[in-house]
Amino acid sequence: MSAETASHAVTVLPKQKKDYAIISTAKRLVKNKVAIIGLFIIFIQILLAVFAPLFATHDPVKQNLSMAELGPLTEGHWLGTDNYGRDMWSRLVYGARISLFVGIGAVVLGLAGGITLGLLSGYYRRLDGIIMRIVDLLFAFPGILLAMLIIAILGTSLANVIIAISIWSIPTCARIVRGSVLSIKKQEYILAMKSLGASDMRIMIKHILPNCMAPIIVFATMRMATAILSTASLSFLGLGAQPPTPEWGAMISAGQDFMWTSPHMIIIPGIAIMCVVFAFNVVGDALRDALDPGMNLEN
Amino acid sequence: MNTVTTSRQVLYSIENVKKHYPIKGGIFKTVKSHVKAVDGITLDIFKGETLGVVGESGCGKSTLGRTILGLETATDGVMKFKGDDLSGKTPKQLKPYKREMQMIFQDPYASLNPKQRIGDALEEALIIHTDLEPAGRRSKVNQLLKEVGLKEEHYDRYPHEFSGGQRQRIGIARAISINPSFIVCDEPVSALDVSVQAQVIKLLKDLQEKHELTYMFVSHDLGVVRHLCDRVLVMYLGQMVELAPVAKLYENPTHPYTEALLSAIPRPVVGRKTERIRLQGDLPSPTDPPPGCAFHTRCPLATERCKMERPKWREIEDGHFIACHNK
């Protein structure tokens, strides 16, 4: 059978030509100009957050009342100082660290909860009703109110802000994952794994979860923006970071009283929040396009 | 039943197996009715044979395959594998039996996890069912790849890098990876083009010989079934219509439904026109199958008796069974 031998000499592509999904996604992502700006801003934030002690020129919490309320571009304080004479730039740099930490913490916790609930409710139809009703319950609260409620119960601290924001992310994440699980569960390869005698756990973790990563990644990126913004909001309301922690929202809150005399106290952290939220949203959007299965078709 | 063939060893014996899917409706999701996908199948599958199961779309042939494998829970009936009753066993007790029974799927594009390398996919069954070391698993996977006509280098590849025929080979390798004795092939070649079909069928035959496999070959392609199978079961609306050795069935189809089905095969013989039997009407709904003989609504020979009484499953000659009042 000549066709038989032909199939043995099948198109063995050279190894370097191998097409990893992650590389092709990254390629499509960097084609998006706005996404590059977003990625750049995120990169800067990560850089500042990780190496905050190197970038900061002063101790972010050290007061120096003789240097209070200096405007930007003052010698020694290029972004000026606040009403206690603390260096704005140093506070901004350490603030990047806090907002990144809270954002990642809240998103990771939220994903852990949401993915677990989503997998369980999508896979086991019996749990679906119960879990989805709980999720509906969480949905019924406006997000920031829910976060405030949780903080009111747990007390004000940054750790509790993380918990509050992560709980707020759980319902959306659970819904997204459940939807993907429902469609993937019907695929024949899941049935194939069942016929091989794979346990439910193995099927869920090794076969369903990797195939619903795309929407989860997009959700996580977008959620970072929400988490950072909500942390700032909660801190602004006095429910998150407490003074003298250099949190961006708290900085705006503190700057309110000086907004006519020293507007830079609220403008600078405000711009920082805006840039970062914009960056994560834009990258999330671009990721969604890049991961779109419709565009994934190789030619 | 099957008294004549007692000399052959029965591998899998099923008795009056039914699979009904409830249809729920209304506010309280009460069960309104059932889709009778498989409605009372009694069958012995012999060791080493290839049993073809044919019928129209929706006649329950795939469901029968899945129910036999335990992928669907049978609504009713007794299933005995190598003499052991499988009903009422816990999933843990069933694990050794699952190892003996595997499935090859219709769609080679949907039956492989797109995010999993081929090597890992093949290794997975070995992880579940054997306690081989990673090195042992690797060499077993390499051996499997070669056995189905692929190469060791394919270990690191992802499914999208393969053609349909190659993917089907991977599916076959996965099915035989844990040395099963019984494989349900659910239309394994219907998604492939004809030249690849021939290769895959040849591979299935070779593997059967080498590993002493028993196949249940579900198909709507009567040509392939004739080529590959030893015995053929014809199904209609979840019920058995005719069961016979392949030569007898094709030479001498007895049930009117089988006759109609076989007359639909195109015959490449010049000047010999066989008359095509055209069935009237649509396939009745499996939710509400006709009383009596399920086929009576479309049967050219239907009588009053057919409308009232479900025909008995009887043997008309050696190993040739039929459910019809009039033959």
Automatic annotation (TrEMBL), chain A:
The principal localisation class reads membrane
Q: Does the keyword Transport apply?
A: yes
ABC transmembrane type-1 domain residues: 96-284
Tell me which Pfam families the record gives.
Answer: BPD_transp_1, OppC_N
Q: How does it sit in the membrane?
A: Multi-pass membrane protein
Q: Which segments of the protein form a coiled coil according to its record?
A: none
Under the heading InterPro entries, the entry gives:
BP-dependent_transpt_permease, MetI-like, MetI-like_sf, OppC_N
Q: Which PROSITE patterns match?
A: ABC_TM1 (PS50928)
Q: Which keywords does this Swiss-Prot/TrEMBL entry list? A: Cell membrane, Membrane, Transmembrane, Transmembrane helix, Transport
- Transmembrane region(s): 34-56, 98-122, 134-153, 159-177, 212-238, 258-283
Q: Where in the cell is it found?
A: Cell membrane
Family (UniProt): Belongs to the binding-protein-dependent transport system permease family.
Q: Could you identify this protein by its name?
A: Peptide/nickel transport system permease protein
TrEMBL record, chain B:
InterPro entries per UniProt: AAA+_ATPase, ABC_transp_ATP-bind, ABC_transporter-like_ATP-bd, ABC_transporter-like_CS, Oligopep_ABC_C, P-loop_NTPase
Q: Do you know which SUPFAM superfamilies this protein is assigned to?
A: P-loop containing nucleoside triphosphate hydrolases
**Any GO MF annotation of the entry:** ATP binding
Classify the source by domain of life. Bacteria
Q: Which UniProt keywords apply?
A: ATP-binding, Nucleotide-binding, Transport
> Could you tell me which residue ranges the ABC transporter domain spans?
12-262
Recorded hits in Pfam families, A to Z, give: ABC_tran, oligo_HPY
Q: Which family does it belong to?
A: Belongs to the ABC transporter superfamily.
Q: Which PANTHER family match?
A: ABC TRANSPORTER, ATP-BINDING PROTEIN, TRANSPORT ATP-BINDING PROTEIN
What is the protein name stated in its UniProt record? Answer: Peptide/nickel transport system ATP-binding protein/oligopeptide transport system ATP-binding protein
Q: What is the species of this protein?
A: Peribacillus deserti
